[in-house]
Specification:
The protein is an alpha+beta fold. It has 2 helices and 3 strands.
Amino acid sequence: MKKIHTRVKRRLGLAHNKRHVKKIKKVRPKTFKTEESAKKYADVKGIKNYELVNLKIGSKRKLKVVSKK
């Protein structure tokens, strides 16, 4: 990989001893802690027919908005 100039490293906030390779992250679903915030998001996005799915097991809540067809 081509070397990056020190000023550019400082501007981008990169460490001097790292390889400067972007990590490719998997796209995750938008999640919510409360039902109210999930419903508000669905209304803003214009989703009429949806259901809330809990992604966590147990008492913790991690809700995802899933549109029904």
